[in-house]
Predict the structure.
Amino acid sequence: MPISTPTISVSDADLCDLRARLRATRWAEPWPVGGWAAGTDGAELRRLVAHWADGYDWRVHEAAINALPSHLADLDGTPVHYLRFDGERPGALPIVLTHGWPSSVLELTTLAERLAVPSRHGGSPDDAFTVIVPSLPGFAFSPQRPTLTGAEQTHELWHRLMHDELGFADYAAHGGDLGAGVTSRLAEAHPEAVVGIHLLAVAAPAAFEPASLTKEEQAHLSAAAAWQQSEGGYMHQQNTRPLTLGSALSDSPAGLLSWIVEKYRAWSDCDGDLASRFSDDFLLTQASVYWFTNSISTSFRPYYEYANGLTTRVRRVDVPTAVALFPADLSLPPRSWAERTYNIARYTHMARGGHFAAHEEPGLLADDITAFFRDLRPAPRDA
């Protein structure tokens, strides 16, 4: 059942505490290496921290967050926060959008508005969606699930939200990063309700014969292994000892910002220029949300749970599936690799953009989602 509309209200004392911590940052001893080669660039981090402490206006962004169409559902004692953007025409196809890490629902608001009201962007009202954007459990606005074992997995919570609470008999789904896994499991578990899914990443096949790999698939696996070796340290830590890291980042806002801002630079289509894709205020709002809700540690749980066998593995998704690959994303699997697990109906190499495509290229992403689902919209029926 829906419960009271949530707001975020940071006390003056908490805001002052953040600023005091930022101003009192004990900076790491610099190395004789410049730039981002060994991690977050120290000079850029100092600049962002100084702005966060003395230039960034949290109250402006707090008001903007509270102006969003937020709701809170109680799923038998599990609260789930979500945004709802109603489609501009009656009977618009519902779609659930799921974010990843180190993101939040705030990254998806521009995409959601484009999908709900396409006529504002040169599209047709006939292509409108009613867009639901839930906060993953443990990410900012949704509390973490109460136990590691025995609690409903996120994809089941999403189905209960869409089907049982909101009354959508049929709906679509989209996700990237962690959200791609949730979306895939949702479609596998509930093909009777999910008309199709749109993904920015795919699950690896549950099993395959090495001899069956094509040269393109072999190259993909080699590239993935190389990326894991050079870029995957964060994942190994979050998979294995997340609480050790969580304690540090929950105590130091500068450390928290350092941990996530390096990912925004490395994983986006910014060619090394962070400001070309993300404003200071966007980055600091994401960091502020993690800080004020004390949710960076709980945001690591999906990594630990998956690595320890607590999350259902994707085996076969038979609903129609679209894959959109943005060139600067973490992985660019060939179509044949995706087809080992999914019923691929659309496979697109996008012209530009990266891991944070909903923020980097919301127009390209909205157009691809719209084109894919145009022929999958079910005939109206009672919810």
The radius of gyration is 21 Å. The chain has a mean pLDDT of 95. The first strand starts at residue 2 and ends at 3. Residues 66-224+314-373 form a domain with the Rossmann fold fold (CATH 3.40.50.1820).
